[in-house]
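Translate sequence into structure tokens.
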Amino acid sequence: MVSGTAKTEEVSQVEARRLWNALVKDSHNLLPKVLPELFASVTLHQGDGGVGTIKQLNFTPVNKDFSFVKERVDEIDEEKLVYKYTVIEGGELGKKLSAAKFEVKFIPKKEGGCVASWVCNYETLPGVQLEESKVKEIKENSIAMLKKVEQYLLSNPSLY
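Result follows.
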């Protein structure tokens, strides 16, 4: 078993609170709308979006590795714009990973916009090595998704 961390930061033109509202508070509606090629749907299995909520992200066949990921919300800090969650089923869990926890932060910039920070702490299954190319691909996909949401919000300035 190997423990690892994958991190990425990206500057966004969108203010932190708008990205927070879009990607944390309303992701179940926004992701399938803005990224229909990737997300078939997002369903809440338990809770209302707050701590303890369990939601499932269902992917389209374009995602060849897995069809869904089920997440549990662990922490929501509205003041600091920090969102923490744990993958509890699906995705690479049970295939390559034994655990995956995420932290997403939106840090306001004085000149406008924000820095979006994404950290994944993971543990691989015994005998499994997570390839650096796969970690790089995950980071690149996360940034691409953020940029697509950013463009949507810039094109729709009255939302969120």
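Note: Strands lie at 3-12, 39-46, 54-59, 68-77, 82-90, 97-108, 114-124.
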